[in-house]
Amino acid sequence: METTSPALNTSRREFLKTTTKATVGLSTLSGVTLPHVFAAEDNTVRIALVGCGGRGTGAASNSLSVKQPTKLVAMADVFENRLEGSFQALSAKHPDRFSVSADAKFVGFDAYKEALAMLRPNDIAVFATPPAFRWVHFKAAIEKGVNVFMEKPICVDGPTGKRMLELGQQATAKNMKVAVGLMCRHCPSRGELAKKIQAGEIGDIILARAYRMQGPVGTCFTKPRDPKTDPSELMWQIKNFHSFLWLSGGSYSDFFIHNIDEACWMKNDFPVEAKANGGRTDRGEHIDQNFDHYSIEYTWKDGSKFFFEGRNAVGTHNEFATYVHGSKGMAIVSTAGHFPSKAMMFKGQEKKAENLIWRAPKVEPNPYQVEWDDLLSAITNDKPYNEIERSAKSSLVTCMGRMAAHTGQIITYDQMLNCPHEFAPNVDKLTLDGPAPLVADKDGKYPIPRPGIIKDREYGETA
Ligand SMILES: NC(=O)c1ccc[n+]([C@@H]2O[C@H](COP(=O)([O-])OP(=O)(O)OC[C@H]3O[C@@H](n4cnc5c(N)ncnc54)[C@H](O)[C@@H]3O)[C@@H](O)[C@H]2O)c1
């Protein structure tokens, strides 16, 4: 058809000019349908952000920094002030790609539905709320058939892990592209290291160890909610989501998953069992549900071990690192946070300059951007892309270590996957003025794990 051919051969800017003119002309003819090519050529990927906090704003910014045309069209949050802060930051940073109109800002627990309604099949929904809401939002995205970027962890307990695995399969059946914010998996240096390790360059992996030892993180507070400043218990818990297991899986799941996932990636397997210690040595009057130290022995199915040490305490040794030991050598996966990886490989078990056999380049791309470049590439080239299965397993393995510490029992992967304790079964039915899934006692303190006393669940009444 004559009207379509020039547009097919023009640059994007010329195309937009051509399309606009053509659209004006054609739309004046009643009953004329726009030729299909115009819709097909509008290849801008539209983004809707659900959860406009720190990471959501960062992820949206990454989504607007890819080379393919993208634009942010909708924003949703349960707090208007969070949405507004993010709106201001993103509109200032990405004026060319920011396209959120006043009526595309949605507030409330159902806001995600309205944001999703603004997307078309090739577009992307970004889910960066606390993890409790991940399955709810993902289920709606699958019904709508849009691509998804979601933040880690993607579940907080056994039932939500199992649900995410099932939803992941549904997303694959619909050819949706689904990314999960375990961004280090997209770090090229760590990718090269994983290939070398799996090719046997340091022999058989016999041990991994990882450390996330740092000062208090997230929300460690000592005072109960003040009804004058925070009238809603539910909304106060959401604001302080790292403190509550139903919202985040606690500090363990929310912070430690990255190092646990790195070790699983290098081993190319997920542990089958966890045995652990943990406690609240320095918790004082803190009213949250977290332990302040965790020490986990994970076992892989070939019997090899992965030790994980997590601590949130002042005045103690700090370390943020992942190491893998093989029968012939050892590897550093991370030594100083998420990037640069400073990944290295050595002969023998010591980090000695003379034993160095490989090291990552000193300058590495930001994995938070690379994960978006990879997602957009998969969408543009229609390549299969679904990170749910491995991310759900990493999230479940993380829960398994946490549950082993919280109950004082050995917990297997199958026990974790089939554990019936769902922390917040009605998370899809919450309302702004409704009750919270977790209730404080008369002193304003929340139920904490009691290893050896409560054994079949992490807190609350034994079933
Ligand atoms: N990949 C990473 O390195 C990384 C880094 C930071 C955070 N994260 C993850 O991102 C997620 C968010 O963390 P954050 O630090 O941005 O927290 P945040 O508190 O800054 O942001 C969360 C936002 O979600 C909103 N929200 C809560 N419940 C909602 C709901 N039901 N519907 C819509 N909005 C809702 C909150 O109001 C808030 O604005 C977490 O899962 C966290 O683990 C990942």
Task: Provide a compact summary of the structure.
The protein has 463 residues and is an alpha/beta fold. Helices cover 35% and strands 18% of the residues.
Helical content band: 25-40%
Derived from helix and strand composition plus strand pairing, the structural class reads alpha/beta
Strand content: 15-25%
Indicate the low-confidence ranges by residue numbers. 1-40
Distance between the termini: 69 Å
Biggest β-sheet strands, sense, barrel: 9 strands, mixed
Question: What is the CATH level 1 assignment of the largest domain?
Answer: Alpha Beta
The CATH superfamily of the largest domain is Dihydrodipicolinate Reductase, domain 2
CATH fold title of the largest domain? Dihydrodipicolinate Reductase, domain 2
Which of globular, elongated, flat, extended, rod-shaped describes the shape? globular
Strand order of the largest sheet: 14-13-12-11-7-10-9-8-15
CATH architectural group of the largest domain: 2-Layer Sandwich
Q: Please compute the radius of gyration using only Cα atoms.
A: 24 Å
Tell me how many strands there are: 15
Number of domains: 2
Total of helices = 15
Overall pLDDT, averaged? 91
> Any ligands, ions or cofactors bound here, and which?
nicotinamide-adenine-dinucleotide
Please provide the ordered H/E string of secondary-structure elements: HHHEHEHEHEHEHEHEHHHEEEEEEEHHEH
How would you explain this protein's 3D organization?
- The structure is a single chain.
- The chain has 2 domains: 34-184, NAD(P)-binding Rossmann-like Domain (Rossmann fold, 3-Layer(aba) Sandwich), CATH 3.40.50; 188-365 and 387-429, 2-Layer Sandwich (Dihydrodipicolinate Reductase, domain 2).
- 35% of the residues lie in helices and 18% in strands.
- The chain contains 15 helices and 15 strands.
- It has helices spanning 5-8, 12-27, 36-41, 54-63, 80-93, 111-116, 134-144, 158-173, 188-198, 233-239, 245-248, 250-267, 367-380, 388-407, 413-418; strands at residues 45-50, 70-77, 105-107, 124-127, 147-150, 178-180, 205-214, 273-279, 293-299, 305-312, 319-326, 329-334, 344-347, 356-359, 411-412.
- Mean pLDDT is 91; it is low at 1-40.
- The site of nicotinamide-adenine-dinucleotide has 26 residues, from helix 4, strand 2 and helix 6.
